[in-house]
What we know:
The protein is α/β, with parallel strands linked by helices. It has helices spanning 50-55, 62-74, 91-97, 109-115, 135-140, 157-163, 172-189, 207-214, 221-232; strands spanning 14-18, 40-44, 79-82, 102-103, 122-126, 148-151, 193-198, 218-219. It has a four-stranded parallel β-sheet with strand order 2-1-3-4, with helices on both faces. The chain is globular.
Amino acid sequence: MKVNGGRTNYGEAVGIIMLDTVFPRIPGDVGNASTFPFPVRYLTVEGASPQRVVKEVDPTLLQPFIAAARRLERDGVKAIATSCGFLAVFQRELADAVDIPVYSSSLLQVYTAHAALNKNRVVGIMTARAQSLTDRHLAGAGIQHIPVVIAGMEGAPAFTETFLEGKPFLDAEQVNGEVVRAAAKLVSEHPDIGALVLECTNMAPYSRNVQLAVGLPVFDVVTLIKYAYSTSVREEFRGFM
C-alpha cells in the first residue's frame, strides 16, 4: 500500500485548542492527554486566559483561535475541539475557517440530549459562571430554542480560584464536592431535568460522581471528544457469524 507524507507527525486524529492556563490538569481533564484512549494533539493560544474568554468574551481572540484551528488542520488532525465550553460563541467562525469538523463546546451536546428525552423533560447545564453564559453562547451552539436550566459555580471557592482566577493549584477533593453538590442542588430544584451537560471542561473529572449523585445521563467534553474521534476514525469490526 502506498501512502503519502508531507508532515512530521501522524496518528493524532483530534486536535485540541487550549486556553493559556497554569492550573493542574488531572486525569479526566481535557488538558491531560491520558484522559483519552487515543492520541490527541494540543495547541495553546497564548494570552487566551479564562478571564478573557469567560468573563470578557474578548472578540480579539477570534483570529488567534482561527489561526490555531488552521494550524491543527495543517498538522493533519481530522477533528478539532477546544478546552473551554464558552468558545461556543466562536463555533460558526471556527467551523467556517477550516475543512474539518470543529467541536468548540460541550454545549453542542445539549441538542442531542434534549432530542433523546421525553418532551416534558429539560436539559440541565452546569457551567463555570452562569452570568457569563449568555444567549450568544447558546446560539453559537445552536441550542437557543431548547428548554434548559443553568447552574454556575459562583459560590464554589475552590473551583473558582483555580479555574477562573487562575491559581496554579487544585484541591481536587474539594472541587469534587463543590461540583457534585451544585449538580444535586440543580436537579433537586428542577426535577424535570432529564440529563446534565457539563459546559466547563474542567468538570469532566467529576462526571462519574455527578452521575452517581443525580442518576441521570451526564455529557461533558470527554464524551464530546470521544464522539468526534469515533466519527473521524471509524473502527474496523472484527467478529464472526
